Amino acid sequence: MATFHEVRFPTSISYGSSGGPGFSTRIIESDSGDETRIGRWAQARRKYNVAFGVKSHTDLATVRDFFLARRGPLYGFRYRDFHDCTSTATGVANELGGASLTNVDQVVVRVSDGGLVGNGIAKTFQLRKVYTSGSGSLTRTIVKPVVGTTIVALNGVSQPTGWNIDPSSGIITFTTAPGDGVVVSAGFEFDVPVRFGIEVDDAFLSNIDQFGHGSMQDIPLVEIKDISSVSDGGEYSFGGACEYAISGDLKLSLGTGRVVNVQALVVSLKVILPASAAGFPGAPQLYLTNDASGSQPFDVFDEDGSTFLVTLSVGTGIEAILTIDGSGLKRWMLL
Fold it and tell me: Which of 168, 162, 184 is nearest to 115 (CA)?
């Protein structure tokens, strides 16, 4: 069953709404004020409140019907973010005086391997937008281009034909693969894939203020993030709990559950954390406890089985999270 409707939220109502991008950052602060910051999301997630555009009974009916047709938050849909909806540097919509598109606004990448130029073989390229400030940058995959707005160039030369674009994925497919080393660029307008916020799942509350007028306090919309862009443990791909009564060393796996209770039946046993390659940096990843029903202490080791981390006495527990160290490698951190 499709979970996304290729329809745009009414722009007459979303115009003038508030919202924008945000991240999920965990900050662990010590008593001294030192802190460790853990970026749980590799990409920003955008949220909006479009209630400001509801002014009349007609507006209320339009939003109500749109909400019911999407089954509340069940089905996603398109949203026009007027302040960031084009490939230009500012991203501002033309309706607000934004700059015109050019076919060299953004360099697009090979779908097969993310390469920045043609290789004479690849025919499919993904739209994207790069945001840069100083030495920092963030690349955003564009999956909902607006039909009829995309323009393409090869090495800066306009290509009016020889390609097509899928408006539901943002993938350009060329009839003939661009040559080796050829820069493929594009200009485009795009929508944000969103859903209604869970806050309105229980009830879609509206007000009849006076004759001919109506309002809503909140109409929350939340960006739908493509799973391929998620690199954090905050959006779990595993869950549940498991229990072990062990008389030998135990190697854990993220697939067994997020909460692990262990009862060591003999002394001097190792519990080895899961392979870091299997998880995403973020927090929390794993809760490990020493079951309080008469078990022995056991030692917790890093995934290599040779690096000692901590001894868990009976009835105690730890939270294990994945972090990225200074060399870019994943490491377990215990809290």
Answer: 184
